[in-house]
Write a structure and sequence with these properties.
Elements lengths: L1 H29 L7 E12 L3 E11 L6 E12 L2 E8 L3 E3 L4 E11 H13 L3 E11 L4 E10 L14
Antiparallel strand pairs: 1-2, 2-6, 3-4, 3-5, 3-7, 7-8
Length: 167
């Protein structure tokens, strides 16, 4: 009788384990496939300076190509201009990017006096200004999505609209 009880208990454990695996596999297929939202640089505005640092507001446009809204818990990014670091920023501001829509996010960042002076020197000599924006969108429930965007423009001319990624 003890052997039968052990056999029955083992069968129940195996059945429960199989049921759990099937439930987990089913839940994984319910998660929608996310196309990474497009993040683009809209504006850089100086806010104030001290002897050793410069405060800058960086405005970013988040464009959602998905057929569902995306809830963000925040984002982090690094901004380089003409190959030299200008600033990095982070915000914990919750943002909802509507389905097939866009949102603007403004992040106040600090850059060092050395980084700012390096940019002034580079921009004084540059015929073209390039920028690289990289970072992560922190999703409320699903982890984080990396993003990367590059662009260029000529001083005195409006920036060219870069082609959309993936087209």
């Amino acid at each position: 009788m003890a052997a039968t009880t052990r056999y029955t208990a083992a069968m129940i454990r195996r059945s429960l384990a199989c049921a759990l695996l099937l439930c987990l596999a089913g839940c994984a297929t319910l998660r929608p496939q996310i196309v990474v939202p497009e993040v683009s640089l809209v504006n850089i505005a100086p806010l104030g300076a001290t002897l050793f640092e410069q405060r800058v507001r960086v405005d970013l446009r988040l464009r959602n190509p998905n057929d569902f809204a995306i809830d963000l818990a925040g984002l982090d990014f690094q901004l380089a201009v003409n190959g030299a670091r200008l600033a990095s920023g982070v915000t914990g501001e919750a943002v909802v990017i509507p389905r097939l829509g866009e949102s603007l996010v403004s992040v106040e960042v600090t850059t060092t006096l050395l980084d700012w002076m390096r940019q002034v020197e580079i921009l004084g000599k540059a015929q073209e200004i390039t920028y690289d924006l990289t970072g992560h969108l922190h999703l409320t429930h699903l982890g984080r999505l990396p993003f990367s965007r590059s662009g260029q423009f000529s001083p005195g001319k409006p920036p060219a609209i870069p082609p959309r990624q993936g087209t």
